[in-house]
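Hi F.,

I've been meaning to write this up properly since the lab meeting, where we talked about keeping a consistent format for the predictions we share between groups. The idea is simple: the sequence comes first, exactly as it goes in, then the structure tokens exactly as they come out, then a line or two of notes. No screenshots and no reformatting. I'm using this chain as the first example so we have something concrete to point to.
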Amino acid sequence: MRRHARRNVQRIARLAAVGGLLCGGFMVQQAIASEPATVQPGAKTSLTKAADTGSGLVTELGTARTAGNWVDKDGNPVVAVTDDRTAAEVKSAGAKPKMVRFSMDDLRSATETLSDAPKVSGTSWSIDYKNNEVVVQADTTVSKAEWDQVAAVAKSIGGSVRMERTEGTFTTRLNGAEALLSTAGRCSAGFNVTDGKTAFILTAGHCGPVGSIWFGEGRGSDQIGRTVSGSFPGGDYSLIQYANGQPPDAPNVVAVGNGQGISITGTAQASVGQRVFRSGSTTGLRDGQVTALNATVNYPEGTVTGLIETTVCAEPGDSGGPLVSEGLAIGVTSGGSGDCSRGGTTFFQPIGPALQQLGVRLSGLPTGTGGNASAAPPAPSADSSTAPAPGSAVPGGFGPIAGSQGETLLDRLASRESLGPGLLIVAGSLVALVATRWIMSEQDRRAYRRRYSASWG
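Output, unedited:
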């Protein structure tokens, strides 16, 4: 293992000495699978069971007595409650009660007041269940006068609102590069879906309006498909209809870079405190935690509501890429602030509402599973060549994508096509930067393996 690592370092050093580099983007060129128009989760993990316990109690006890639920670091369900009687009921049901000042009705009333006020681009708000507050964020584009305007609304609401500044800007993660390409720029494929007759790609709505034509990275003039429906602003989802009417060979696989993929066997709603993984064409596989639900973001292009707020990083081009947890589809990347060097906040369109509004279901599950695969996966091998095949029914399986060349970043950097006489002056530091990005993404892939193998109960 050490010998292999030393060889990789030596290869990078040789490339740095040459100083020639031409590195195109690479990542998500397949999407994922399963699920009818209504949300029907796949196999239950210990985390989703805990989340279901908490959300079930909130539904049973009502929003006047509770203020949300989450899963703590030990995997236990926690429910915010407003009185001792409710706390006792929560405890007897096997969950942890946390006494809070404001009910969910109070917190929702606060967000409604914010929504009714004049919109300020560069702001967002969400309900922080753990701290029993509505958190209003303002990015660096918000002026002092605009900050004071929003602060005045927050003050009128009372103590349930917290104002804070955030670095960077709230943007939809789109730029003009590669992966899923159109005249609007670059995005990432999310999920393969179907209406029972036609094959589509589900991606972010801001990626392009109806009629946008999409091409694949490295495919020249070969058309992948055309955007046929979607929602943005308001929601952030759209459908790209395949030009040939056919999905990839393994539509239930999410590509996560380096020729690897994750098998998807169902869907789930996000839970506060849940660890999630995002895949995108710019930064590969990244992980983080769900911090809030039903978030509202005022992008420059318009307001989007009902989003999942997370600590996962993302960058331009990652838009539309899939958000997953333990083999279950959660959502698609919308936008956020920051980047994968400094970190930041990223918002996701939940999968359930998008599927329901578009009238489609995730495609590619083995016949007869019906979105409810129950087989627990074996522990994945450290050697990806012996890991479970991602196209199988193994929930969250991590392994090589069928037909993939398994090309690594080092292979790409070392190829003859990546070197040219006009690029010999490119500094070796650029090589080191790209190599560092690959190493970080590889670490997240390994983290996924460890997480998924340990979390199924």
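Notes:
The first strand starts at residue 66 and ends at 71.
The chain has a mean pLDDT of 74.

If this format works for you, I'll send the rest the same way.

G.
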